[in-house]
Structure formats: C-alpha cells, structure tokens
Design brief:
Blueprint (H helix, E strand, L loop, with lengths): L18 E3 L3 E5 L5 H8 L2 H6 L9 H13 L5 E8 L4 E11 L4 E8 L9 H16 L4 E7 L3 H9 L3 E8 L2 E9 H12 L1
Parallel strand pairs: 5-6
Antiparallel strand pairs: 1-2, 2-3, 3-4, 4-5, 6-8, 7-8
The structure holds coenzyme A.
Length: 195
C-alpha cells in the first residue's frame, strides 16, 4: 500500500493492489470476498459489545448490496483496510477515519474478529504497522482512538504501540477512554527502537 508522500498534510491515498506489511500481518484494501467474514463478525453480540456498536440483524443479501456500494464509492476521509496474516487469512479490519487535514489528525479503529488471533500480538502489530505507515507517508501529527473504559485488552494493546490516555468521553451511556499518539512521541520511540 502506498500512501503517497504529498506535501499537504493528511493526504492518504492507498493504491488498490498494494499492501502494507508488518511483522505478523499485512494490511490490504478491502474486497467483496471479505463481506462474509465482516457480516459474521458484525452479527456477533460479544464483538459488537466490545466495539460499542449494535449487533447486525439484517440478512446477508441486504448487507452484501450495501457492502458492494461502499466498495464502489469509498469515502474520502475513511480508509478501511483488511488485516491478513502473512498466510493470507483475513482475521479483522483496521480503519483510519475522521481524517482532518485542518487539524492534522485522524482516528484509528481496529477489530480482530477471529478470536484465535487474540492475545498473540496481532493487534499490536497491526496498530504499529498502521501508525508507522500514516506518520511516514502523511503530514498528520496526531492519531487517536476511543475504547470502552473496561476494554483492558484493547488498552494494553494500544499502550504497547505508544498510545497514552488523553481524556474520557461518554456516548449512549457508555464510558470511553481516549488515547493518542503524537508524531513527536512516535519519532522518539522509533529513535529509541533503532538505538
Ligand atoms: C483489542 C484487540 C484489537 C487487541 O488485539 P490483540 O491481538 O488481542 O492484542 P495484543 O495481543 O497485541 O495485546 C493484548 C494484550 O492485552 C493483554 N490482555 C488480554 N486480556 C487482558 C485483560 N483482561 N486485562 C489486561 N490485559 C489483558 C494480553 O495479554 C496482551 O498483553 P501482552 O502482549 O503483554 O501479553 C483485539 O483483541 C480485538 O479486536 N478484540 C475484539 C474487538 C475489540 O475489543 N476491539 C477494540 C475496539 S477499541
């Protein structure tokens, strides 16, 4: 995947056939064949609860139509990518969205739907790979994310990638922790890793 090195901040242009490769995963552009897994994961009550969303209840045929439309007309400030193992197994999704050129920031979201891949470092590798890619190829200076305040697995995963708590928020009666990673901290950590 090539998010072009543009001069303007927050330019984020994935080329369709490329992938971003991490240590344990690859991130690639989503395709119609992902719909079955995505439908299954979004219809799963536990995953929906962890993700603070509603469990999907529409038939697959309806879901597929919407899915195909979204693939044909992607939104300009939202880049949903599929997470694959290095053996090409689709295990979840990671999205960079709410990209604001004005503020120089964007939000990240991640969901590993395949439970066999929880607690094995796939989440941390995905978030680090996405974070590196965004900071290396765009002018964004801050990435942030929201997680339910009781989702300790997610928080541990994000902390491992350098995100730190930066506030709290409430939505639909649920409490969320906000976490952020600023470019400066990311650069220091990379310097530390190299040194
Ligand atoms: C959250 C998620 C992305 C994390 O990915 P992952 O691959 O499971 O995470 P990692 O293995 O990289 O890191 C998880 C860490 O949390 C730890 N952990 C697991 N359960 C925990 C708990 N209840 N309390 C504290 N730490 C916990 C793990 O041991 C691991 O730490 P370690 O590497 O020191 O052993 C993934 O589990 C997921 O998508 N879950 C379902 C949906 C979800 O919660 N989405 C998040 C929305 S913000």
């Amino acid at each position: 995947m090539n998010f072009l090195k543009n001069t303007a901040p927050a330019d984020f242009n994935p080329l369709d056939d490329d992938v971003i490769t991490g240590g344990k995963i690859r991130l690639r552009v989503k395709k119609l064949a992902d719909a079955r897994n995505d439908y299954q994961w979004q219809s799963d009550a536990e995953l929906a609860r962890l993700d603070a969303t509603r469990t999907l209840i529409i038939p697959f045929s309806v879901y597929l139509l919407d899915y195909a439309t979204e693939l044909r007309h992607p939104k300009s400030n939202r880049y949903p990518l599929a997470i694959e193992t290095l053996e090409s197994r689709h295990i979840g999704n990671c999205t960079c969205y709410d990209i604001s050129k004005k503020k120089g920031e964007a939000q990240l979201g991640i969901m590993i739907g395949d439970r066999d891949y929880w607690d094995k470092g796939y989440g941390a590798d995905t978030v680090s790979t996405m974070t590196d890619h965004v900071f290396l190829t765009t002018g964004l200076h801050r990435l942030y994310l929201k997680t339910l305040d009781w989702n300790l697995r997610a928080q541990k995963c994000f902390r491992k990638c350098g995100f730190t708590p930066c506030g709290e928020t409430k939505r639909n009666g649920q409490d969320f922790l906000l976490m952020e990673l600023k470019r400066e901290r990311w650069e220091k950590r990379r310097g530390g890793l190299r040194g």
